[in-house]
């Protein structure tokens, strides 16, 4: 790309990396960013700690209609390449649980500040408060209509991300630009997102957090399950296990499938162990109401719904027999929660779908339709699991544009 101008739409994760590498290769680079500052999603990431990557990068953590594309990009850039890239900029990395990698500072702001420093050091021009409204190509030049006038360049990188988290700059504009240039899109749905339920009991449990397992059923058929925090909220349910399931729910709700979660509130106790524990607690001739009796075992906000779903007929502790205990155990380990919606792109960390990657060269990230048009990051039909996989793809696809 030498001696030509490259304009990058979006100063997010992939745009910044592509800019640094391209400028280092001697290219004249300008990034146009609609926000008043760069890297807003990086700043908000990992609860402000920035889960930058994952030591166990593998294609099975990614979702795309074109897995070969993902495999091709990832193969060229294992975790060690990212480690080298960040440490060369002075960002030391540490590993947390499940291979998650963070900056040693545990501050996302340090990542953004050092990326910005590096970009400026190698001569990248960054224009904030510059929204690109439309793009076109005439002859060999791209024309961009922006809030700061018309810009032109021989090369254009669309690194404008997805509509997830519009409050941080999430936008559909990359899709509009791509389709204008003749590209097709794979359907987009919110992912890594909280789930909504219209069941009235859920509001009463808001704030309750348990380490559990959530199983997803769609139209009565078992789909998958995830282990981790389950956090009841006034709109439905959140927590890490739910975010991890949300991709499956989101895509199924889009086709009007009936989605129901079955929650195991005590996964550490087998059915047998829980039954024995409850049986051992029964004191005959105790008139203690069942709700009060269960308080010794489970969060009291959950008891009413457990009693309702168990259809336990007895009212007091002394009336409990094995059959009634079995009903309670079943409800504790299979609490049903129907899901009607997600919190949408506003609550989502990423979007599924995006620009169809069969139309993009995985060796260069260049469009197969329009020469000198490139794509990187989440605007493409690639999304990853929670755990640093999304940033990893953003960084490596940016590196690929700059061909490090
Ligand atoms: C709250 C939150 C927490 C997250 N935490 C993590 C985490 O810990 N680990 C992880 O791996 N992933 C995380 N993610 C996902 C990760 O942030 C994204 O996958 C990643 O930022 C995508 O990089 P990108 O470069 O494709 O897009 P982005 O980083 O979103 O950058 C795109 C940029 O383009 C700009 N833009 C868009 N349209 C225009 C336009 N028309 N004109 C000018 N500029 C425009 C946007 O303002 C934005 O700055 C998180 C996401 C969110 C929302």
Largest sheet: 7 strands, antiparallel
CATH class of the largest domain: Alpha Beta
The number of distinct structural domains comes to: 2
Query: Which ions, cofactors or small ligands are bound in this entry?
Result: flavin-adenine dinucleotide
Question: Can you tell me the CATH superfamily of the largest domain?
Answer: FAD/NAD(P)-binding domain
Strand tally is 24
Strand content: 15-25%
Would you identify the CATH architecture of the largest domain? 3-Layer(bba) Sandwich
Description:
- With 404 residues, the protein is α+β, with helices and mostly antiparallel strands.
- It has two domains: 5-189 and 353-402, 3-Layer(bba) Sandwich (FAD/NAD(P)-binding domain); 194-342, no CATH class.
- It is built from 14 helices and 24 strands.
- The chain has helices at residues 13-24, 40-44, 67-76, 79-88, 108-121, 173-180, 201-204, 240-253, 271-281, 290-294, 300-310, 322-333, 344-347, 389-402, and strands spanning 5-9, 28-32, 53-54, 62-63, 93-95, 100-103, 125-127, 132-138, 141-146, 149-153, 155-158, 185-186, 190-191, 195-196, 209-218, 221-232, 236-238, 259-264, 335-339, 341-342, 350-351, 354-355, 373-375, 383-384.
- The strands form seven sheets. It has a seven-stranded antiparallel sheet. A five-stranded parallel sheet has the order 7-2-1-11-23, sandwiched between helices.
- Strand 8 (132-138) and strand 9 form a beta hairpin.
- Helix 1 packs parallel to helix 14 (389-402).
- The two termini are 13 Å apart.
- The model has no long low-confidence stretch (mean pLDDT 96).
- The protein binds flavin-adenine dinucleotide.
């Amino acid at each position: 790309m030498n001696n030509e101008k490259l304009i990058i739409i979006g100063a997010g994760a992939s745009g910044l990396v592509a800019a640094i590498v391209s400028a280092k290769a001697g290219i004249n680079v300008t990034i146009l960013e609609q926000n008043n500052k760069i890297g807003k999603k990086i700043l908000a990431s990992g609860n402000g700690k920035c889960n930058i990557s994952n030591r166990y990068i593998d294609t099975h953590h990614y979702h795309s209609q074109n897995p070969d594309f993902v495999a091709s990009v990832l193969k060229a850039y294992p975790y060690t390449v990212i480690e080298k890239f960040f440490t060369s900029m002075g960002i030391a990395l540490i590993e947390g649980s499940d291979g998650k990698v963070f900056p040693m500072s545990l501050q996302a702001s340090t990542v953004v500040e050092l990326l910005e420093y590096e970009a400026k050091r190698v001569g990248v021009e960054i224009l904030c408060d510059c929204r690109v409204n439309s793009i076109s190509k005439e002859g060999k030049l791209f024309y961009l209509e922006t809030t700061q006038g018309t810009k032109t360049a021989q090369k254009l990188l669309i690194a404008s991300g997805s509509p997830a988290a519009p409050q941080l700059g999430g936008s559909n504009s990359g899709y509009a630009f791509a389709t204008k240039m003749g590209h097709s899109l794979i359907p987009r749905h919110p992912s890594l997102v909280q789930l909504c339920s219209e069941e009235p009991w859920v509001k009463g449990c808001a704030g309750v957090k348990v380490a559990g397992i959530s199983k997803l059923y769609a139209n009565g058929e078992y789909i998958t399950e995830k282990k981790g925090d389950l956090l009841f909220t006034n709109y439905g349910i959140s927590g890490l296990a739910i975010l991890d399931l949300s991709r499956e729910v989101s895509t199924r709700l889009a086709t009007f499938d009936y989605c129901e979660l079955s929650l195991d509130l005590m996964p550490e106790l087998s059915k047998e162990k829980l039954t024995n524990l409850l049986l051992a607690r029964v004191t005959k001739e105790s008139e203690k109401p069942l709700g009060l009796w269960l308080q010794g075992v489970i969060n009291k906000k959950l008891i009413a719904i457990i009693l309702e779903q168990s259809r336990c007929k007895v009212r007091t502790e002394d009336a409990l027999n094995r059959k009634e205990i079995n009903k309670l155990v079943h409800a504790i380990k299979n609490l049903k929660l129907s899901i009607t919606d997600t919190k949408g792109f506003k609550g989502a960390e990423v979007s599924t779908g995006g620009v169809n990657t069969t139309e993009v060269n995985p060796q260069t990230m260049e469009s197969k339709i329009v020469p000198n048009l490139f794509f990187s990051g989440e605007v493409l039909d690639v999304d990853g699991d929670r755990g640093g996989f999304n940033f990893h793809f953003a960084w490596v696809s940016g590196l690929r544009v700059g061909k490090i």
